[in-house]
Amino acid sequence: MFVVVVGCGRVGAQVARGLVEDGHDVNVIDENPEALQRLGGDFAGGFIQGVALETTVLEAAGIERADAFVAATNGDNTNLVVAQVARDRYEVECVIVRVLDPARARFYEERGLVTVCPTRTAIDSISQALRTFSATDGEGA
User: Fold this and answer.
1) Residue 31 · residue 51 · CB < 8 Å
2) Taking the CA atoms of the chain, what radius of gyration do you get in angstroms?
3) 116 SS3 class
4) Which pLDDT band, with edges at 50, 70 and 90, does 140 fall under?
5) What is the mean pLDDT of residues 104-129?
6) What is the total count of domains within the chain?
7) What phi and psi values does residue 6 have, to the nearest 5 degrees?
């Protein structure tokens, strides 16, 4: 499988490294050339420095042949726009987008994007931990 990953921060870099370790072909896009260091010297995938909102950068990364696309920058707007471009313009079959705002994640999920919302995951986990604590340690302690 060939995957384009946008964003080489903690999330994008780990996703890219994991995909390469699993035997997939991966190209990573990031604006910051120093982000390449997060991938490590032994990273067998590609790295393209540039702004993923530019089609020339997406095409340099090989989006036209991508089987999957991951938008994992730290900006919801960037992630949502490039994910929609990957899906609608380049017809990438599997598009996954990280969205920090739970309301926006829900909105775009309803429009067919596969979203991952770490904020919603944290809220759910904290709420569940508090419910479990309350049930085992007594009510209203």
Assistant:
1) yes
2) 17
3) strand
4) low
5) 91
6) 1
7) -100, 125
How is residue 110 written in tokens?
């309803």
Q: How far is CA 45 from CA 18, 55, 116, 122, in A?
A: 11, 20, 23, 31
Residue 52 vs residues 82, 118, 120, 127: alpha-carbon distances, Å = 7, 22, 26, 36
Q: For residue range 24-74, list pLDDT tens digits in order.
A: 999 999 999 999 999 998 999 999 999 999 999 999 999 999 999 999 999
Host domain of residue 79: 2-137
State the average pLDDT for the chain.
Answer: 94
Could you say which DSSP state residue 102 is in? H
Contact 85, 29 (CB under 8 A): no
Comparing CA positions, the residue from 81, 121, 119, 36 lying closest to residue 129 is 121
Residue 92: C-alpha distances to residues 45, 50, 69 (Å): 19, 20, 7
Q: Model's pTM, two decimal places?
A: 0.89
Tell me the CATH number at 114: 3.40.50.720
